[in-house]
Amino acid sequence: MRRGPVTAADFAGLGHALRLARAAAVLEEVPVGAVIIGDGQVLGEAHNEMVKRRDPTAHAELLAIRRALTHSGADRLPEATMYITLEPCAQCAGAIVLAKVGRVVFGAWDHRAGMAGSVDDLLRHPRLNHRPEVIGGVMDEECGEVLKQFFRDRR
User: What per-residue confidence (pLDDT) applies to 3?
Assistant: First the structure.
């Protein structure tokens, strides 16, 4: 499923997202982190804040997109790369398409709700007007383990 090479910058970006996910776990949020990088700088970053905001839509990806757009002063992010610790859901995949994020690199596959190849592939749907480059399964084990440990601790 990989398109294009995985670079050292991709591992660094995903490592940054993983640190955000671990911070979410400490706050008892589902540990998903997202960071958007453009021109070598962080444009926006977030972890899930659904519990804090009492908002089931407060996913890391949406919050990171909003922050990146505010930071850049733009309405689209075609030159940016989004790093996410978990394959995006339908809501987040839709936001990524609408924001025209140029590239998406994610860690763990989400076989229950993933929309970048697991359940379906909204990010590269042929009828949509934007299809980012997608590289999935990068650091899959590390990203997946953070989620598994979080849910293990809650049982």
Answer: 60
Could you report how far apart the first and last alpha carbons of the chain are, in Å?
33
- How open is the CA angle 82-101-58, to the nearest 5 degrees? 65
61 is catalytic: yes
Catalytic site residue from 29, 45, 61, 87: 61
Statement: the pTM of the whole predicted model exceeds 0.70: yes
| Cβ–Cβ < 8 Å for 150, 25 | yes
Contact 44, 64 (CB under 8 A): yes
| Strands (E) located in 5-143 | 33-38, 41-47, 81-86, 103-108, 133-135
Q: Which pLDDT tens digit goes with each residue over 76-92?
A: 999 999 999 999 999 99
Say if CB 119 and CB 89 are below 8 A apart: no
Strand 133-135 relative to strand 33-38, pairing? unpaired
- pLDDT confidence of 27, banded at 50, 70, 90? very high
